[in-house]
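seq:
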Amino acid sequence: MESQALDTRDAVILSGFSFEEDIDKESFRIYRQNFLNRKPEHPFNECDDREFLRQIGGWAKERSSGNEGVTLAGILMFGKFRSILDALPNYIVDYQERAGTETRWIDRVTTDGSWSGNLHDFYRIVTKKLFTDLKIPFQLEGDQRIEDTPVHEAVREAFVNTLIHADYSGSYSILVVKCPDLFGFRNPGLMRVPKYEALRGGTSDCRNRNLQKMFQFLERGEQAGSGVPMIYQNWAKQHWREPTFEERLKSNQTVMVLKMISLFPESVIQELTEMYGENFTGLSRFEQLILITAGTDEFVNHRRMKELVKEHSHDISLSLHTLVEKGFLQREGSSTGTFYYLTGHHPMQDEMFGVPVRNPELQAGSSEHLTRSPEHFTTTSEHWATLLTLAEPVRNSQKSPKELGMDWGNGNIRALSANNVEMGRINFQKETYLGSLKLYKKWMNNGETSKGDITMTTEAPLENVAQIPDNSKYILSQRVILLKMVPEVALSDFFAQYFQGEQFQTELIKQSTGTTVLGIQQKKLVKISLPLPPLPEQHRIASVLSTLDECIKKTEALITKLKQVKAGLMQDLLTRGIDSEGRIRDESTHEFKDTEVGRVPVEWDVKTIEQICS
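struct:
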């Protein structure tokens, strides 16, 4: 409701701000020149600077009080660096070019005071960078080369949408990311129309309408809610994967990712060609796409193909049937649960029954091993020890790289911060800094990481535990401690599980300090008492829990796939039904009729809700 109540939030007049002191004159001049170039006959060109700013929404006057001044839109679009921050203390715009999604940036533009920081300059600077080295074939109109392709149009639209729909009162930055195979756009603030309406088009409810108007004057940004459908259409023209468009409710953000990944991946095509030779290359383009989708997604169903192509439902069914008859695909399931996979490559063959059982106690059928409880961490012996006697704590130098006379970059050694260490795993999808070998040696001066070592966050958040996944070098960044267990008495796999359990987590909080943010000092952490079962028993307990973890992961993957299968089945069952022999009706074998709700089996009636409800 708050978002809707502030429909014209960027039209608010900022008290104490002026055109002379707070508007970046060069940025404003460039905008006026671009406006003139695009609209040479427009009457706004005859206005002086202040009147021009008023006409485009950057200056306003309250008719009731007579107060006038620069609007929030005017400061955002043309303001000076310090003026923008005076109006919006949390304002940050950030562009990053990365060599990959998990790497640190190799080029960056952000609000660091070296340029105006306003949206107009941010758009001008970043647009050039987004399109540099963009390997998209140019188009011809007659014999004239057209540099502006549908890809340029879609990327520009996504960028402008990010700027005009952002909630600039939020605490998150605007983030634009360019990688070799994708563009990413993130803005603070959730969508003001349902996602399905945005995808359908025709509905527009812009959070910052004056900013929207300013970009539209430069012929940037679609009107009437047509921008998102255009992005999807232009991406489909390249035969690329469908864009990702989502809201992140917990962090109050909207994200769009445009992946330049083909529906026809070369690696999958090569694999299919090696498998089937001319039998594959001789198929129709649509039949090849079905096999490619099965190879890429591990299985394919009717609904998935409907998402990818515009072929009639009957043609999809016929092609799937033909590929089964020719031996390319195998079919499983019935009704709307039918799915297809490449012959001999069942997508679930190792997930339902192939879970390895490492411990014979699991085979005995004892139910006590099938639930995770603190009892697995309790030893009946009286062996207890402090953490200090069981592990060697390793921390970093507790100084920043600059305090060591160095800086990040110039290397590829990842720095693990509390942001990367999650409960049970290290998340490399989140941003990590990279350091050089020289920095690593100077920073990690009291120990190195090894596979299986335990990392623990000691503050913000206090609680997360994960194991180092390999023998690569890692720099321990802020708020992270490494525990190297003494192998003669303590097994890392056992204590990694124990540290995640309720008993240890409760004690951790008891020993912590702080009001707003809880944290624990190393000297207190190492004095926490731990149960110490005999080493063989530690191995047995860790094996049971590790097996359960694997079962959980595989079950979650299976559930995800079955949901996709169900979704495909629902479409068929609710539009075609099942005949007396238990088969889904098909227009090639059954009679259908035209109705106001589309074609349905001749056995079906069509009624209104009023007719079937009491």
